[in-house]
Amino acid sequence: MARPRTPIGTYGTISIRRQPSGRYAARTRYRDWDGKSREVQCTAATRPAAERELKKKLAERSLFHPGFTGMSADSAFTALVDYWLEDMELEDRLSRTTRQLYERNMRTLVLPFFQDVTLREIGVARCDYFLKQLAKQSYNRARQARVVLRLALGLAVRHEILPRNPMDHVSRLRRPTRSPDVFTWNEITDIRAAIRDWEKRPILAGPRPDGQLGQIVEVMLGTSARIGEVLAIRVADLDLDAAVPMVRIAGTIISRKGEPTHRQDHPKTARSVRRVALPGFALRAVRARVRSLRFVGPETLLFATRVGTPHTTNNVRRQLRDVMDQADIEDVTPHRFRRTAVTAINDIGGLQLASELLGHSDPAITREHYIRRNETVNPATADFLEQAFGRAS
Description:
Layout: E1 15-18, E2 24-31, E3 37-44, H1 47-60, H2 77-91, H3 96-114, H4 124-137, H5 139-158, H6 185-200, H7 212-223, H8 227-231, E4 238-239, E5 246-249, E6 252-254, E7 262-264, E8 274-277, H9 280-292, H10 313-326, H11 334-349, H12 351-358, H13 363-369, H14 380-389
Antiparallel strand pairs: 1-2, 2-3, 4-5, 5-8, 6-7
């Protein structure tokens, strides 16, 4: 019967001998991570010190093994980043857009702080300090950095390069208290007037504006859709002759590095696919746009360049910003139209309806990130309290 082997990470009797130099050498046989037994030695000025150093080395030895990745706890953080990016490509679980976003956040936010340290040197204190310093500049940057740093170090734990993920113990990021910014009715009026004046201005050279910018704004405000979702609307997604005119939000515009801008056949999430009734002002904008199309087919984009290619979201944002700068109107962004529309729905129809309009799976997301809180309590409370505590005159 074969004798059972000692477990990995165990060692035998420690022998200590004095060397000709006067120092003491402590030795033992250690069963390493690959199952092979190797001699491990440490030297020190005294016998007890040599034994302590050897035991310390043995306790840490499991962190030195290169594993299947060729990395150890003494590898540079940059080596882990390269392997993490490669692992995301091989796993192919995330969309290419998300992978590019993660890579950008890792290279711009995390690497500048960690590029000169080894994996062994990345502990809870270092991670906690990094996130707090970044949060002083921007909460969103700190949040994005926390995601990718946790994922990369989590990969190191799964591949037994590190014993634990230090990101599991960092303190929570505190979101700054602020109310989502929405447009007032007067601001919407000013924005519409500014776009109308810009589209009707005298043109000395180049093509005249074709009205798309104003129509895009009306559709964003009338559907609460993301800018990429509005730019991805096709003729096939429109049902303008129904008793209740509808638009189907079923795609988004993608602009990836090294790839042409194209329409993706689904929005941000599967829940985001939805049919939205068009209010009158948005319906008028859509019909005006359809009438101006040179070619109308099911796959024809409602909003496109003069050669029929998709608009990039960045170009629409830039054009909107330029027009607002000329009119001295500040803080006009596509996402603010989304928050404005859904806040109006929440005030009139309630949170659940507002969440459905946005395509959110959880109304809490809608309440926390999109809706400006109404500070006015229902005046009926005054009547109830008068009934309870008021004095008869």
